[in-house]
């Protein structure tokens, strides 16, 4: 009987420790999955990278794929539309080169939590950019979006223009 009691006193805390460990791991893994589903906007980083490309090459790239090897390291990315669009961290980015010194960029949230994230539209030049922010654009309307919409079209979609921020010129 004494041997059974000794084994029970050893196994009970061990089982309780394992149970607590499994519970904590389950909470942690569920939180990681939930965090991975949250759309994360990267328009600021994309704007910076496009400006860096412009500084190096003298004009904006034709497609987002052209950033690889010049600004971005080469790796597998989710490009669509011949490299003009891509999926990244639960956002769908649509890029258009309007001219050698002007581009537009749409950032549309996707995924389960898309309704909680904003849509962005950016018109960029080497010296400044104009940005609009608003509610998530419905998925069926994404096909109908103009690459170069007017302010009126953006207002109809519920996007509001943000303060115009001049882009600081880098000194060489």
Structural overview:
- The protein has 172 residues and is an alpha+beta fold.
- It has 2 domains: 1-37; 43-166, no CATH class.
- 35% of the residues lie in helices and 24% in strands.
- It has 4 helices and 8 strands.
- Strands 1, 2, 3, 4, 5, 6, 7 and 8 form an 8-stranded antiparallel sheet that branches.
- Strand 2 and strand 3 form a beta hairpin.
- The radius of gyration is 24 Å and the shape is elongated.
- The model has no long low-confidence stretch (mean pLDDT 89).
Task: List the main descriptive attributes of the protein structure presented here.
single chain; 2 domains; 8 strands
The chain-level mean pLDDT equals 89
Report the principal-axis shape: elongated
Number of domains: 2
The end-to-end distance, rounded to whole angstroms, is: 83 Å
Judged by helices, strands and strand pairing, the structural class is alpha+beta
Q: What's the SSE pattern?
A: HHEEEEEEHHEE
The gyration radius over C-alpha positions equals 24 Å
Number of E-type strands: 8
- Strand residues, percent: 15-25%
Task: Detail the poorly predicted runs.
Answer: none
Enumerate how many helices there are, as a single number. Answer: 4
How are the elements arranged and paired?
Blueprint: H1 2-37, H2 43-57, E1 78-80, E2 85-88, E3 91-99, E4 102-109, E5 119-124, E6 128-134, H3 139-142, H4 151-156, E7 160-161, E8 165-166
Antiparallel strand pairs: 1-2, 2-3, 3-4, 4-5, 5-6, 6-7, 6-8
């Amino acid at each position: 009987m004494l041997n059974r009691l000794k084994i029970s006193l050893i196994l009970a805390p061990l089982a309780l420790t394992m149970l607590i460990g499994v519970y904590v791991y389950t909470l942690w893994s569920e939180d990681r999955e939930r965090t991975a589903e949250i759309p994360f906007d990267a328009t600021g980083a994309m704007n910076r990278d496009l400006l860096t490309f412009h500084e190096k090459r003298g004009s904006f790239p034709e497609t987002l794929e052209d950033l690889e090897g010049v600004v971005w390291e080469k790796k597998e990315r989710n490009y669509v539309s011949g490299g003009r669009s891509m999926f990244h961290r639960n956002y769908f980015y649509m890029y258009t080169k309007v001219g050698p010194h002007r581009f537009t960029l749409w950032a549309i949230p996707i995924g389960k939590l898309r309704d909680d994230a904003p849509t962005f539209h950016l018109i960029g030049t080497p010296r400044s950019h104009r940005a609009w922010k608003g509610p998530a654009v419905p998925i069926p309307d994404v096909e109908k979006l103009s690459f170069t919409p007017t302010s009126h079209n953006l207002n109809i979609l519920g996007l509001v223009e943000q303060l115009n921020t001049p882009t600081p010129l880098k000194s060489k």
